[in-house]
Amino acid sequence: MPASVFLAGPASWNRMVLLDRLPEPVPHMQFAQASWETVGGTSAGKALSLTALGRSVVLHAVAGEDEEGLRVRAALEAAGVVAQWTDGTTERHLNLMTAQGDRVSLYLSTPAETTGTDDAAHAAEMAAADAVVLDLAAEPRRLLPLAAASGTPLWVDVHDYDGVDGYHRPFLAAAAAVFCNADRLAAPVEFLRAVVAEGAAFAVCTLGAEGAVAVGADGAELRVPALPITVVDTNGAGDAFLAGVLDARLAGADLASALSAGARSAAGVLTTRHLHPLLDPILGDPRAA
């Protein structure tokens, strides 16, 4: 039986470093409050959340057979994520974070796009799926024409898009549903309205502790508050939010109800220092180390 969601994009192995403040751009010494290694990558985060919600998903990602790549593959498999791996460079990040959710991500290695030898299979999987999710990376960008030709609604997450960067434009042009955060947008609602005017069915901007705002096809503005919860780590919250909205929409929910489902899904991942609580029994709690 085909997966309900075809998902392509980054799955990485990350070193996380918790600081009292982000480093200033001057030579200095600074002490970490904590550090740990874990699975990262925006597509891995979405796949974990969709899996936890009971939504069938197939994750297409690139990872090598080096130590870090094998760790990523094994952890996601143990968490129940169905993944199809292409051998290549394993993506690795060094993430500098604060308890307030500020983050600087240093990309240590990133995979290139593939040669497309599996494109016929990808096209068939996309056509059979209920939704396609392509995240910002070389291989998903290469897959955009296949996604557009599949006839299946495409969901994209442009993260901290500034409204200008040309790399994101092909994703936005092809998308039926667009997600972003407000980190670099001066006027989030105006951006959402522009995205809908250009053809998206709806667009959503997450606002951190303030929840999220969306604009639907009818131009109506909808807001959902963040659920009150003790935050352990903010990594993966945006991915979980999209996954919750996607799962609810595929189940027939209206946009307002789906946004509430997204808020519940996001709240669940704020309680762990991994991308999702599914990884806690697999990778252990870093706070116990």
What does this structure look like?
Strand 10 (177-181), helix 6 and strand 11 form a beta-alpha-beta unit. Helix 1 (42-52) packs across helix 7. Strands 5-4-1-8-9-10-11-12-13 form a 9-stranded mixed β-sheet, sandwiched between helices. A 4-stranded mixed β-sheet has the order 3-2-6-7. It is globular. The chain has helices at residues 42-52, 67-78, 119-128, 138-150, 169-174, 188-197, 237-250, 255-269, 280-283, and strands at 5-8, 12-19, 34-40, 57-62, 82-86, 91-98, 103-109, 131-135, 154-157, 177-181, 202-206, 212-216, 221-224. 33% of the residues lie in helices and 25% in strands. It is built from 9 helices and 13 strands. It has 289 residues and is α/β, with parallel strands linked by helices.
Task: Compile the SSE list and pairings.
Layout: E1 5-8, E2 12-19, E3 34-40, H1 42-52, E4 57-62, H2 67-78, E5 82-86, E6 91-98, E7 103-109, H3 119-128, E8 131-135, H4 138-150, E9 154-157, H5 169-174, E10 177-181, H6 188-197, E11 202-206, E12 212-216, E13 221-224, H7 237-250, H8 255-269, H9 280-283
Parallel strand pairs: 1-4, 1-8, 2-6, 4-5, 8-9, 9-10, 10-11
Antiparallel strand pairs: 2-3, 6-7, 11-12, 12-13
Radius of gyration, in Å, reads 18 Å
Number of strands: 13
Write down the overall mean pLDDT. Answer: 96
- Note the total helix count: 9
**Oligomer class:** single chain
Rough outline = globular
Strand order in the largest sheet: 5-4-1-8-9-10-11-12-13
Q: Runs with pLDDT <50, length 5+?
A: none
Give the strand content. 25-35%
Outline the biggest β-sheet.
9 strands, mixed
State the end-to-end distance. 41 Å
Helix/strand-derived category reads: alpha/beta
Reading the helices and strands in chain order gives EEEHEHEEEHEHEHEHEEEHHH
Please bin the fraction of helical residues.
25-40%
